[in-house]
Design brief:
Strand content of chain A: 5-15%
Helix content of chain A: 40-55%
CATH architecture of the largest domain in chain B: 3-Layer(aba) Sandwich
Strand order of the largest sheet of chain B: 3-2-4-5-7-6-12
Keywords (chain B): Oxidoreductase, Thiamine pyrophosphate
Radius of gyration of chain A: 23 Å
Strand content of chain B: 15-25%
Distance between the termini of chain A: 68 Å
Number of domains of chain B: 2
Radius of gyration of chain B: 19 Å
Largest sheet of chain B: 7 strands, mixed
Protein name (chain B): Alpha-ketoacid dehydrogenase subunit beta
Structural class of chain B: alpha/beta
Oligomer: heterodimer
Mean pLDDT of chain A: 93
Number of strands of chain A: 7
CATH superfamily of chain A: Thiamin diphosphate (ThDP)-binding fold, Pyr/PP domains
Number of domains of chain A: 1
CATH class of the largest domain in chain B: Alpha Beta
Order of helices and strands of chain B: EHEHEHEHHEHEHEEEEHEEHEHEHH
CATH class of chain A: Alpha Beta
Largest interface: A-B, 43 and 43 residues
Largest sheet of chain A: 5 strands, parallel
Number of helices of chain B: 12
Cofactor (chain B): thiamine diphosphate
Shape of chain B: globular
Shape of chain A: globular
Order of helices and strands of chain A: HHEHHHHEHEEEHEHEHHHHH
CATH superfamily of the largest domain in chain B: Thiamin diphosphate (ThDP)-binding fold, Pyr/PP domains
Pfam families (chain B): Transket_pyr (PF02779), Transketolase_C (PF02780)
CATH topology of the largest domain in chain B: Rossmann fold
Distance between the termini of chain B: 44 Å
CATH architecture of chain A: 3-Layer(aba) Sandwich
Strand order of the largest sheet of chain A: 1-2-3-7-6
Low-confidence stretches of chain B: none
Number of helices of chain A: 14
Structural class of chain A: alpha/beta
GO molecular function (chain B): magnesium ion binding; oxidoreductase activity
Mean pLDDT of chain B: 98
């Protein structure tokens, strides 16, 4: 069927004919505070604010525990910045910065129990840290020596997933397996899965299908969307007409929006969500409302699509600074602690840098290694032929 | 010795695998109460329960993607795709995750998933129900791809595919589902990744797989009248291809005709031809020929008799080869 002759496409400046509260997506711009439903325990000014629903999930976070969280945030930011610098020095092919999202990731990662499983996207360096993956193990992906060298089973942290949204279905299937094995309930060995993805991924079919499967099978999976406001150059309003956390209602489970720059709130809300899942009340969708303060990757140029003012406004909500202020002003932590974390981060950065340049190239065997669990005559023949060819150059 | 249809043979094979290993799951659209649109999974949910035979929501990426997650957890899911042309919404999960996780993780994350796909034409179906997309999977490193052609193989191959630690794309020739054959339930089966000479001969080698195997055997019988003694090889495994028996055969016969329903260009049949000319060049008495579907989308079903390689087209190719 062809379009009527007098039909003309609407221009982008044509105002929407469907105004209304659902059309306005709360919190898309730098000035937005995330809406009235935003869960927050620590303000950008470093003030602890009460939350009757979630305070109990952070009640054990004493001064020492908060200092540990601060240390996490600083160290993760430090090696992330080193990753960025290493790419600029030509040591890495690309780096995916997490600047600005440290609290969203540390809060969620530290909320997990050892037996839980995380399915990350590719920016989850902070979650990796919280799961005990040494940061140097992230380097191979970006230097091109491997696709992730850590053991997903031992760490409870699956390999990075580059294809947007794929991991939401894999995580859901894994969570279904936890349920099938009877690991959901009040027992001490009950388990949950947490799946990380971005606001852009919510447009992918796999995320929708993950929500459907998780809902109909009551899978113990927390969908943890880090809404960092931008999917490369596309803003969140290019993904949705409603706040992302509200989508959960349409699938029949809880959705909640948390201040993604507030590590305490992210910790508390994720603990609650994981507990919901472990005890059979999942799935749960968390929207961690945050901001990507750097480029999407080192190949990106955000100055082409967003205003510097936006970044400046989000700097005022920095996830690290608010914890530091709270530690100093409210809890009286002495400067020596911060000096110690600084020294530790310097040492980590140096180790990270050195490891990067020391990483050996994998050699041609890597191409042919572990393609199949049970081998393949074709691959075996190609390996033997190529290695013989390769070795013919020895001594030349 | 049992006499079973291919559909029942696969059903029995699934049942045997599920009885042996509680981690084996069957999942897909309508596989439970209905028993699948072809009834291949008939009765399994009744006997194994809804947690082992999952009637899933209607989305192929969801079926494959959750199967990948279940396999990571330690299960052995067997996914049913209702028809060949419906697999493509799940193709991303198959290619991006299922095929690559073992390699990406350096062997730490095996994904023993079987994806069953009824494939090929000849049942008078509407669009998207008669395709032969096997080359699209055989081209993907990390997957293993097989096609059964008779009830006996189907019974054993489905069990072997489930026992494999590699992901296996399992093609079932849907127009042969209702054909009966003897199945030796106590036999020592042919290995999963092995082609097999199913009819010895000396004049020319016919190689095929899946639904056309029967056509090849009929052609070999018909060619006897012309004094041609055809050897027929069932390729069975499309990735990795097991071409040793084909090479041996061609070195004796000097002639090869490859038969398949899929379009010819860059197909499994093309790969067989290329490899045979690499390995058997000095033995060939004639060019290697292909008899395949055409390089068109699968046509409306009233055209499929012309589209599918039939007895006459196979015999015509045999005559052309013998004429060199």
């Amino acid at each position: 069927m062809s379009a009527p002759q007098d039909w003309t496409p609407p221009t982008s400046s044509t105002p929407s004919s469907r105004p209304g509260p659902d059309h306005v997506v709360a919190g898309l711009k730098g000035t937005d505070e995330g809406g009235a439903d935003l869960v927050q325990l620590l303000t950008p000014e470093g003030e602890r604010v009460p939350d009757p629903r979630f305070d109990s999930y952070a009640a054990d976070v004493d001064v020492e525990a908060l200092k540990d969280l601060y240390r996490d945030l600083v160290l993760v930011r430090r090696f992330d910045r080193e990753g960025n610098a290493l790419q600029r020095q030509g040591q890495l092919g690309i780096w995916v910065p997490l600047l600005g999202q440290e609290a969203a990731q540390i809060g969620a990662g530290r909320a997990m129990a050892p037996q839980d499983m995380a399915f990350p996207s590719y920016r989850e360096h902070g979650v990796a840290w919280a799961r005990g993956v040494d940061p140097t193990e992230l380097l191979g992906i970006f230097r091109g020596t491997d696709h992730g060298s850590w053991d997903p089973k031992a760490t409870g942290f699956h390999l990075y997933t580059i294809v947007i949204g794929n991991q939401c279905l894999n995580a859901t299937g894994y969570a279904m397996g936890q349920k099938f094995e009877g690991k959901v309930g009040d027992g001490p060995d009950s388990e949950a899965t947490i799946c990380f993805f971005g606001d852009g991924a919510t447009s992918q079919g796999d995320v929708h299908e993950g929500f459907v499967w998780a809902a109909v099978y009551d899978a113990p999976v927390v969908f943890y969307c880090q809404n960092n406001q931008w999917a490369i150059s596309e803003p969140t309003e290019r993904q949705t007409r409603v706040p992302l956390y509200k989508r959960a209602q349409g699938y029949g489970f809880d959705g909640i929006r948390v201040d993604g720059n507030d590590v305490l709130a992210c910790l508390a809300v994720t603990r609650w969500a994981l507990e919901e899942c472990r005890t059979g009340n999942g799935p749960v969708l968390i929207e961690a409302f945050t901001y990507r303060m750097d480029a999407h990757t080192t190949s990106d140029d955000p100055t082409r699509y967003r205003l510097a003012d936006e970044l400046e406004l989000w700097k005022l909500k920095d996830p690290i600074e608010r914890v530091r202020v709270h530690l100093v002003r409210s809890l009286g932590v002495e400067p020596e602690f911060f000096d110690g974390v600084q020294a530790e981060s310097d040492a980590l950065a140096a180790r990270f840098r050195q490891h990067c340049v020391d990483m050996p190239a994998p050699g041609p065997e890597r191409m042919f290694s572990q393609v199949y669990a049970e081998g393949s005559p074709a691959v075996d023949a190609q390996r033997e032929a190529f290695l013989a060819y390769h070795s013919s150059f020895e001594g030349v | 010795m049992a006499v079973l249809t291919m559909a029942k043979a696969i059903n029995d094979g699934l049942r045997a695998a599920m009885e042996r290993d509680p981690k084996v799951l069957v999942m897909g659209e309508d596989v439970g109460k209905l028993g699948g649109v072809f009834r291949v999974t008939d009765g399994l949910q009744k006997d194994f329960g809804e947690q082992r035979v999952l009637d899933t929501p209607l989305a192929e990426s969801g079926i494959i993607g959750t199967a990948v997650g279940l396999a990571i957890r330690g299960f052995r899911p067997v996914c049913e795709i209702q028809f060949d042309g419906f697999v493509f919404p799940g193709y991303d999960q198959i290619v991006s995750q299922l095929a690559k996780l073992h390699f990406r993780s350096q062997g730490r994350v095996p994904v023993p998933v079987v994806v069953r796909i009824p494939f090929g034409g000849g049942i008078g179906a509407v669009e998207h129900h008669s395709e032969s997309p096997e080359a699209l999977f055989a081209h993907v490193a990390g997957l293993k791809v097989v096609a059964c052609s008779n009830a006996s193989d189907a019974y054993w191959m489905i069990q072997q595919a489930i026992e494999s630690d590699d992901p296996v794309i399992f093609f079932e020739p849907k127009r042969r589902y209702w054909e009966k054959a003897e199945v030796d339930l106590a036999a020592t089966p042919t290995p999963l990744h092995a082609s097999r000479v199913v009819r010895p001969g000396s004049s020319l080698t016919l190689a095929g797989y899946g639904p056309v195997l029967k056509t090849c055997l009929e052609a070999a019988s018909a060619a006897e009248a012309d004094g041609h003694d055809l050897e027929v090889i069932d390729l069975r495994t499309l990735s990795p291809l097991d071409l040793g028996p084909v090479f041996d055969s061609v070195r004796r016969t000097g002639r090869l005709v490859v038969v398949a329903e899929a379009p010819s260009e860059t197909s499994v049949a093309s790969e067989v031809c290329a490899r045979v000319q690499e390995e058997c060049f000095h033995s060939l008495e004639a060019p290697v020929l292909r008899v395949t579907g055409f390089d068109t989308p699968y046509p409306p079903s009233k055209c499929e008799e012309d589209y599918l390689p039939d007895l006459d087209r196979v015999l015509d190719a045999v005559d052309r080869s013998m004429g060199w």
